[in-house]
Amino acid sequence: MDKQTISQDIIRDRFSKAMSQMYQQEVPQYGTLLQIVKETNTDYLSKHPDTFAEHQQGSELNRLDVERHGAIRLGTASELATMKDLFAVMGMSPVGYYDLSAAGVPVHSTAFRPITEQALLINPFRVFTSLLRLELIDNSDLREKARKILEARDIFSPRVRELIALSEQQNGLSDGQADEFVSEALKTFRWHSDALVSLDSYNALLEHHRLIADVVSFKGPHINHLTPRTLDIDQVQRIMPQFGITPKEVIEGPPLRHVPILLRQTSFKALSERITFTDSEEGKHTARFGEIEQRGLALTPEGRALYDQLLLRASASDTSNNNDQHQQHFAHAFAAFPDDIESLRQQKLGYFRYTLKNGAKLPADQNIPAHLDSLIKQGLVLVTPIIYEDFLPVSAAGIFQSNLGSEKNHVSSGNPNRSAFETALGREVIDEFSLYAEIEATSLNQLFAESAQS
Ligand code: OOG
Ligand code: NI
């Protein structure tokens, strides 16, 4: 057998495609959504042929085609630590810390994703991964019961544990091992219609918080949605009902702009699925849903602060559940956020990639950094937005809530506890801003190096 190891990017690409196949079979509406997104993107690109810079067209289109994120909810620290090792096999690292307790959801989260530019282009597959915070459940009997159930389950197959260890020892997996890894790893994410608990226990958990029931009652952390990336989320939101899919009322995140920033998202409601409980009682559980997203410019800390400030102000005075009105209201509030590339760049609100125009030569005797602005103005240096690869806690809370239903949640609103999360994870999470800054700096260094050669 060929023991040569293959690239982690290939394993991630295989895994994300296998996951998408599995989810299409489990949740047929997701297949429909993929179709709508594909058609909308094709249509958008034919009307806006300059969406991607010419020299990036090929790789950007490939990326768009395979791009999606998923989400899971874990129950224990040790599940999270093993999940980190599992994702590491595919070149995915934990980026960012998200506190959702402030929004009444008793979890904190990170996003596992590839971090280098090259890996992102091959397949930017990400998984938003939440850890249940049992300490935020105020009923001590229920808390203990949940803890016992979670401690007794093993969400990983013995073989996937072996393959994770093998990948660490060999510093990678062979082609055949990678295929086996993908099918073994996938088992952790699949749906189980037979619960781990009795119907009464399920109802007790549900009564407390739907999310707690979802995490504790099952054999594994079923993938709860997969999200394709669209170039025109307003259009997808508009046409979803024609395909029998009812979207949530409003699109989360920033309003429609000339230069899209961060992330806009919408979802459709969870399916109600038949469950068999340990006492042979039958019941229903709603957990799995669909979502789409549109991604834009990654913001600097200054840009993000402005975004957060405008979002807070806009949300406080937003009274509408109607998407058109909501968008109008947000567009008004966001008028204060510059909406052309040059202003965003000059005011250091976002991260950009700098490249030499195809075939252009820079004057050899010039101090390029000092003349950057004028070279951009002359069209010799091209500036393109670096895309935001992460998530937004307020939007995530909106997505959680729209799928958990509007029942009362008996959870004390906690506070962020990043260090507890990192202790559970077994490492620190990566600061997302540093990744964007690095991509920007690399593109500038390359530009300067090219000009030195010419
Ligand atoms: C995760 C919700 C967050 C997003 O896109 O913001 C998320 C969940 O419901 O488990 O996926
Ligand atoms: Ni999502």
UniProtKB/TrEMBL annotation:
Q: Which InterPro entries does this UniProt record tie to the protein?
A: HGLS, YdcJ_bac-like
**What general EC class does the enzyme of this chain belong to?**
oxidoreductase
Q: Which Pfam families match?
A: HGLS (PF07063)
Gene Ontology MF terms in the entry: dioxygenase activity
User: Which coenzymes or cofactors are required?
Assistant: Fe(2+)
Q: What is its EC number?
A: 1.13.11.93
Q: Which UniProt keywords apply?
A: Dioxygenase, Iron, Oxidoreductase
Q: What family does this chain come from, according to its entry?
A: Belongs to the 2-oxoadipate dioxygenase/decarboxylase family.
Record protein name field: 2-oxoadipate dioxygenase/decarboxylase
Organism the protein comes from = Rouxiella sp. WC2420
